[in-house]
Design a protein that fits this description.
single chain, about 25% strand, globular, binds pyridoxal-5'-phosphate, 8-stranded parallel beta barrel, alpha/beta, 12 helices, 9-stranded mixed beta sheet
Length: about 425
């Protein structure tokens, strides 16, 4: 469910006509809906009911300060994968004590800054990392909470680039290796064992992989218990999918119910942390673009728009589908089938293929479900300034990232003396 709907043939973001936003900020632009972000966050929070739980929004899905601020005001925790994301969480008013630091390659400075900020937990992925955190925490006279990310070896049945829970993945550790690390952690100065973590992938649209993963995590928790290691929290990662086209991902309710039932049936009441990113931000954003021209070759017709793969790379990177709709619906308009492509000099630069649209040059199109892994994956390829980002709140909107200008893009470069 989102808050981008048509009223009188005109696409609205909450109650603001999308065309009003474009008049103010131009195209391309990302438009986010505060009500949608809040609705999704509450859906997860309510789904767990009285079961002890914490929602840690995965910052990498959409790291705009305003997005983080909306969630921080709800009391959300955060999941970060870099020192840069930590700085954003703090700048957005997030609580670092309710922040989990994930990722396979934490740098020394990142560990230090995380400890300085009072980070809640490090999810660690190797023995070397445990040693580094223990050493740095010792130097700082601090104590670091750690969970080990285990790899439950389940197939999340999603795109290979976003599947992370298989043995061949660079993420996580096998149970055997993880057990060694826990035993060592229990003896390491500056380290407090907090929990067990896993994250099996992204855009998961079935419950079965989650059931298998949690079973393995709980087997492992039992193994730890036999060795005298108490688990305070299970961090079950993120990954719940959204509807881009015709997928029907489980609702947060069903997802949480399965976790609760599984815990209870195995006699556990360990607090659960989850790290949803896409499921909170995905449907809370659209990318608005203007049709530049229509062009026909022998084989294909192209709708050339002013947004490109540097603004939204998911179609080029994952062959991802995003629905594309006219911002103004006009039933009298002639329809055609087009590949919707951008200005970047790459054949991979497309937003959608074989789309039936009723468009003329100058019209506006909205690319839906662009709130997650959209703007954050943007680049300046072809020296294209990044688009404006706007947050809608009821009947008002605000620019939450100004459109870049070309001079900014090379402002930190230098000529030779
Ligand atoms: C990417 C990631 C998430 C969020 O994944 P979504 O599919 O956006 O929910 C959560 N946890 C970790 C460790 C991640 O790497």
């Amino acid at each position: 469910m989102d808050h981008f709907n048509f009223t009188d043939s005109l696409l609205h973001a909450e109650s603001v006509p999308v065309s009003d936003i474009v008049e103010a900020v131009g195209t391309p632009c990302y438009v986010y809906s505060r009500a949608t972000l809040e609705r999704h966050w509450h859906a997860f929070d309510r789904a767990f009911g009285d079961y002890p739980h914490r929602i840690h929004y995965a910052v990498k899905a959409n790291a705009n300060l305003a997005v983080l601020n909306v969630l921080a005001r709800l009391g959300s925790g955060f999941d970060i994968v870099s020192g840069g994301e930590l700085a954003r969480v703090i700048a957005a008013g997030g609580n670092s004590a309710h922040t989990i630091f994930s990722g396979v390659c934490k740098q020394e400075w990142e560990i230090r800054e995380a400890l300085e900020s009072g980070i809640g937990v490090f999810n660690i992925e190797s023995e070397g990392e445990l040693e580094a955190i223990s050493r740095i925490a010792g130097e700082m006279n601090a104590e670091a909470g750690i969970s080990v990310r285990i790899n439950p070896d389940v197939d999340a049945r999603t795109h290979p680039y976003i599947s992370t829970g298989l043995k061949l993945s660079k993420f996580g550790l096998s149970q055997d290796r993880a057990l060694d690390i826990y035993l060592r952690a229990a003896q390491s100065p500056g380290i407090r064992v907090h929990g067990v973590a896993c994250h099996i992938g992204s855009q998961i649209v079935e419950l079965a992989p989650y059931r298998d993963a949690l079973d393995r995590v709980l087997d492992f928790v039992e193994q730890l218990g036999e060795r005298g290691i108490t688990v305070m929290e299970i961090d079950f990662g993120g990954g719940l999918g959204v509807r881009y086209r015709d997928e029907s991902p489980p609702a947060p309710d069903e997802y949480a119910r399965q976790i609760r039932e599984q815990m209870v049936s195995r006699g556990f009441r360990i607090p659960v942390a989850i790290e949803p990113g896409r499921a909170i931000a995905g449907n809370a954003g659209i990318l608005v673009t203007r049709v530049h021209s229509l062009k026909r070759n022998e084989q294909a017709a192209f709708c050339i728009v002013d947004a490109a793969m540097n603004d939204l790379i998911r179609p080029a990177l994952y062959q991802a589908y995003h629905e594309i709709v006219e911002v103004v619906r006009d039933g009298a308009r002639e329809r055609g089938v087009y590949d919707v492509v951008g200005p970047v000099c790459e054949s991979a630069d497309f937003i959608g293929k074989d789309r039936e649209l009723a468009v003329r040059p100058g019209d506006l199109l909205a690319v839906r479900t662009a709130g997650a892994y959209g703007a954050v994956l943007g680049s300046n390829y072809n020296s294209r300034p990044r688009p404006a980002e706007v947050m809608v709140d009821g009947g008002t909107f605000q620019v939450v990232r100004a459109r870049e200008n070309p001079a900014e893009l090379f402002g930190s470069e230098a000529l030779l003396p």
